[in-house]
Design brief:
There is one protein chain. Helix content is about 70%, strand content about 0%. It has about 150 residues and is mainly alpha-helical. Helix 2 packs across helix 4. The chain is globular. The chain starts with 5 loop residues before the first helix and ends in a 5-residue tail after the last helix.
Length: about 150
Amino acid sequence: MVQWTDFERATIQDIFSKMDYEVVGPAALTRCLIVYPWTQRYFGNFGNLYNAAAIMGNPMVAKHGTTILHGLDRGVKNMDDMKNTYAELSVLHSEKLHVDPDNFKLLSDCLTIVVAAKLGKAFTGEVQAAFQKFLAVVVASMGKQYH
């Protein structure tokens, strides 16, 4: 089990309480699909993803980005039981969707960039460390089914 400090818990809760899910989620997924184009293969049913403009304007990308952030919100509410919190999603992504688990890390990196841009100077090294620790635990939990 992961040990969380009071600072880390408060920081994660604070970040998510201030986050505009309908902006940050789509921005993170859009960035991931543009920067790492091979990740697009999992979104074949999303229609036109042929270039950055198409990805940025795709309502299905935006909707799924928001869905991803709401999924992360489950982790915020269950920080002491992340593996069980994400067990069902891990099975779905590994066995049905066959998503390469490395993509979870790529998306978490893109999310960190978007959050850093939104928070500006408030995204200190300590805040980043707490946020990235949280995302690393989520990524590990999502990859659990692959092991």
